[in-house]
Write a structure and sequence with these properties.
The protein is mainly β. The protein has helices at residues 111-116, 123-126; strands at residues 8-16, 21-31, 34-41, 44-53, 58-64, 70-76, 84-89, 95-102. Strands 1-2-3-4-5-6-7-8 form an eight-stranded antiparallel barrel.
Length: 133
């Protein structure tokens, strides 16, 4: 477990370019530069496999559903707000932003809070993330 990338339960949202959001709950493990885990969102259960770098504070992962549906994520730990901000992409289809954060002991974030907070995507994450691919 690391300070920047703590293993355990995480929560958050993904956002489409239309502004519509979907919530997601995850259980993530960060160890020796690799990240893995499971989660659930409006589409169902999924697996996470990817990597993270504590020095650059970056993370890249693939979200895969049992149906074979794949989503690429690229994010950064930036600023005073906890969590990972960034972009997601379905190659040849859709893209948008996301924010996930660790669920801390004693914290509570409602579904409404997760879908109504302002979206902020780090500039680094926007590089090359133009219109839908």
């Amino acid at each position: 477990m690391t300070n920047e990338f703590p293993s355990g339960p995480w929560t958050g949202y993904y956002q489409y370019r239309t502004g519509q959001r979907g919530t997601q709950d995850l259980v993530l493990t960060f160890e020796d530069g690799r990240m893995s885990g499971t989660g659930v969102d409006e589409l169902g259960v999924f697996r996470i496999e990817g990597s993270y770098n504590e020095a650059s504070r970056e993370a890249d992962w693939l979200k895969s559903y049992p149906s074979g549906h794949l989503v690429q994520y690229r994010g950064f730990r930036e600023g005073p707000v906890p969590g990972i901000w960034g972009t997601w992409k379905i190659p040849g289809s859709w893209s948008g932003g996301f924010h996930i954060w660790p669920v801390l002991s004693g914290s509570s974030t409602s579904r409404e809070e997760r879908t109504s907070e302002p979206m902020r995507i780090p500039r680094r994450a926007l590089h090359g993330a133009g219109a839908e691919d």
